[in-house]
Every structure is written in structure tokens, then in C-alpha cells.
Amino acid sequence: MLTILTFIPLVGVLAILLLKPLKRESERSIKQVAIATSIVTFILSIVLVVSYDTAQSGLQMVEKATWIAPLNIQYYMGVDGLSILMVLLTTFISMLAIAGSWDAIETQTRQYYIFMLLLETGMLGVFLAQDLFLFYIFWEFTLIPMYFLIGIWGGKERVYASIKFFLYTMAGSLLMLLAILYMGITNGTFALPDLISGRAAFADAQNLLFLGFAIAFAIKVPLFPFHSWLPDAHTQAPTAGSIILAGVLLKMGTYGFMRFNLPLFPEASYTFAPTIAVLAIIGIIYGAIVSFAQKDVKKLVAYSSVSHLGFVMLGIFSLNQAGLQGAILQGVNHGLSTGALFYLVGVLYEQRHTREMSAFGGVWRAMPIFSALSLIIVLSSMGLPGLNGFVGEFTILLGSMGATESLGAHAWIYTAFATSGVILAAVYLLWMFQRVFMGPLDNPENKKLKDVNAGQLLIMLSLLLFIVWIGIAPTGYFNLTDSTVGHLIQDISSVVTAMR
Fold first, then answer.
1. What does the alpha-carbon distance between residue 370 and residue 379 come to, in Å, rounded to a whole number?
2. At what angle do helices 321-352 and 297-316 cross, to 10 degrees?
3. φ and ψ at 52, to 5 degrees?
């Protein structure tokens, strides 16, 4: 099932390639095939979630086959509590991003939708691969479609942004590749469960190996100070590219820390936890402060990602049940809320062809339905109780407050600084909303704005469904991760206790 789920977007790619070129009706068919493929993939991910046994902590639905026998490299796929929500998020966000591109993409339509579907396959492979060599191939593969999506369909400085995105991520990945090769050669296998059980073989080098993985994942998150590629990539990417970049690609970094760094290098995780927590808090506050200075709405949302993902990193390196579960859920929350914010910016940009806040004002009067739904999305991003952002941030702060083992006796200080990020987020997001949506409708161009059509309304309501659902009833989402996270924390704690 995992193989079908991962590679079914390639069936859509093949179907698009077989459609007749250079005909207006074929462009419509291309879009229909791409959307249909993404819907089928999303439905399969729901079947996966329904089939998932929350009582088991280990890998489920495992698929394993010998791939490169001389090197003991396997085609090894599996899903557990760390990846199940990421798979669901990937298929959901990809479906909405592809559907949301219907009116926005008018040139090279065939290539655009092929790259979108290829990207979905790459992202699903990252979350399901359990062999480090296979994981690395999927990890690097995701760079190629996103590079072209930014470089061809992006803004005025798209080439610069796409090259910067590619080089940053590629450079970090090379360090991870060296660490993967070292562990694979030392243990004679690249299978993650086997490496975890045999981690004593590379225990002496675990600090260096930890850093090799951590730098690659920190760039992808992006963790301060590895964040400088993000605003350029977000701002120049097409709307769907920004949605997927914020919604899923950044989560590959936080997922990597939980999947690889914590179980493979438990002692190093405790050693580096305070340092990473400090960088996370700097990112929370820095991202929020820089957001204040932005005049471009899209750039403001981009910098807010640096701030929000600082919370996720703080939760991960609290190294306790509440922190880790909060980090996983907040990763999903960020994907929904920030993906929705980028979609809102895209809807406005398609009509006004500007993202400058000074060009707007009074939008609520011209687009009342769009504005009302936008307000809920803004409130979810700033962590209003009753919406998804609050649940994740509260659980992370709860975890960091009790992280006396990993962060020391004064763990509450980390929590206090992180809480300031919640307050700052409320200020810059409400300030942005007031500038764009409120006030007099005195710009003649804004008077021509049309409210959302049926397709846009459906996409916004789909996002709001999960935003409200997680905010009101998060228990089902926590249940999916509970058993796996509990087992991981127990494993790390036992190693550290033995070490001491």
C-alpha cells in the first residue's frame, strides 16, 4: 500500500505526458488529470490513517525488498506515529495546491503539473523510507521539481531564489550523506531499525554524526541562522509552490530530527538540546521582529515561518512526551495555517498583481466572505484558543516547561522567552490584517476586487475544516502519535540514564 501511495502521482505524470499537446482543451485535461491524481492520493492516505493501529509503537505496513545486494541497501518502506500525520498533510496540501493553480498557471501548463506531481512523490518517499540510502534519494529528489517550480513560474527574481534554495539545501545534504555512508559502512546496513539497534558501533563518533544530520535538517527547517534562503524562495515561488514549501517541505527538516537524530544519537541529542533550544528561541523572536518590518505581505508570512518553526524545534528538543507530540502536531498546524495564508496572498495577487500592504485597505468591504474566512486563518496562525495553533503551541510550552532533564533546572526560562513569540505573532498578524482588510476602501483598484468564487471557497473551507477540527478535538491526532513517541522517549531516556 505504501508503494502505491508513494508512486501513484507518477501515474498522473504518465497520463499527462500522453495527452495531446498544443490544444486548448488538452490544457484543461492536464489540469483535470493532475487534480484527479492528487485526490486519489489523498483518499489513499485517509485509508492508510484508518488502517493504522494506534496501539502499536513500531513500523506498520512494512514493505522490504533487496535493492543493491552488495551494499546491503534495501527498498524499505514503513509508517509509524512520527510519519502518519506528515503523510496525511502532504497529500492534503498537495491536493489543494494543485487545485488552487487552476487559474494561476497559464504558461507551460504540462510541465508545471508534472513537476507538482513529481514533488508529491518525493515528499511522500521522504516520510515513508526506512533505509537511509533510499531516504537520501527521495530527499534530494524533492529539490529538482521545486527548483524548476520557483525558477520557471516564480517572480521577477525567481532564478536567484531558485539557485539559492538549491545550493543551500544541497550543501547541507552533503554532510548528511557523509554521515549516512559512515554509519552504513560501520554497521554493514543502511536500514534505520538495524542502525538504531546497532548504534553502539558508532557511539564514539555520534556528536559529529549528529551535526552532519542536524545541519542538513536545520537548513531545511530553517533554524536560525540557516534561514536566509527561505524569504527569497517563498516570495519568488508561485502561490502553490509557497503553499507546499511552507506546508510540507519545511516539515521534512523537523521530521528528520525526530526520525534520525533522536533515536540514532540519543546522548548527542541531550548534549546539543540546550544549544538548539536557544537557536529555536532566537528564531522565534527574530522571525517575529523581522515580520514587523515587512511591507510585502508574502514576505511577512515567510518570516513568520521562521518564528513558528522555532516552536516546533523547541518541542523536539524538550525531549519529553508533551514536547515531541506538540512538535508533530504543530508541524501539521503550521502547514495548514501558513499554507492557507499563502493561498490568501495568492488570491489577492491574482486580482491586483501586487503584494504591497500599502496598495490595499478596505478589502473587507469589497470581499466580505473572503475577508471573514481570512480572519479565522489569521487567528489560527497567531494561536487563538479554539483553533489549531493554540493546541500545538500550548503542548510545546508544556513540554519545554517540564524539560528539566534536557534543558536543565531552569527550563522555565526557555518557556518564558518562547511565550513572547506568541504575543509578537498576535501583534504582527493583526497589524497586517488591519492594513490589508480594514479601513476605508479608498483605492479605486480595490473597488474592482471580486469576492471568492466556488473553487476558492472550497479550498479555504477545506483548510478551515482541519483548522477548527484540530482546535476543538485534537485527541484523535495525538492518539496517532502517542505510542510511537512514548516508545522513542523511553528508549532515549534509558540510554541517557545508563550513560549517567
1. 14
2. 170
3. -70, 135
pLDDT in tens, 150-174: 888 877 888 888 888 888 888 888 8
Look at the alpha carbons of 466, 467, 469, 473 in this order and tell me if their dihedral is positive or negative.
positive
Do the beta carbons of residue 255 and residue 124 sit within 8 Å? no
Question: Cell numbers at residue 33, please?
Answer: 488529470
The answer for 356, left when phi > 0, alpha when psi is -120 to 50, beta otherwise, is beta
Q: Is the dihedral of CA 261, 266, 268, 271 positive or negative?
A: positive
C-alpha grid cell for residue 333?
498546524
pLDDT value, residue 25? 57
Backbone angles phi, psi at 327, to 5 degrees: -65, -45
CA 159 to chain centre: 23
Between CA 293 and CA 288 the distance in angstroms is 9
Q: Which helix (H) or strand (E) holds 68?
A: strand 60-68
Q: Let me know the angle formed at the C-alpha of 50 by 44 and 53, rounded to the nearest 5 degrees.
A: 125
Cell of 67: 535493492
Q: What is the mean pLDDT of residues 112-132?
A: 92
CA distance 343 to 449: 16
Residues 87 and 123: beta-carbon distance below 8 Å:
no
HSE of 479 in the Cβ direction (CA atoms, 13 Å)?
Answer: 11
Question: What pLDDT digit, counting tens, does each position of 451-491 carry?
Answer: 888 888 999 999 999 999 999 989 988 998 888 888 888 88
Classified as helix, coil or strand, 79 is strand
pLDDT at residue 37 tops 90: yes
Q: What is the dihedral of CA 114, 460, 326, 385, to 10 degrees?
A: 170
Mean pLDDT of the chain: 87
Q: Grid coordinates representing 374?
A: 481570512
CB neighbour list of residue 426: distance below 8 Å, 6 or more residues apart: 382, 383
Rounded Cα distance between 280 and 397, Å, is: 13
pLDDT score, position 461: 92
Tell me the CA distances in angstroms from 363 to 133, 278, 371, one per residue in order.
Answer: 50, 39, 7
Average pLDDT over residues 270-286: 89
The SS3 assignment for 354 reads: coil
Question: Going by C-beta distance under 8 Å and a sequence separation of 6 or more, which residues neighbour residue 13?
Answer: 114, 117, 118
Grid cell listed for 195 = 542502525
Q: What share of the chain is helix, strand, coil (3-state, %, to 5)?
A: 80, 5, 20
Name the residue ranges covered by the structural domains of the chain: 271-500
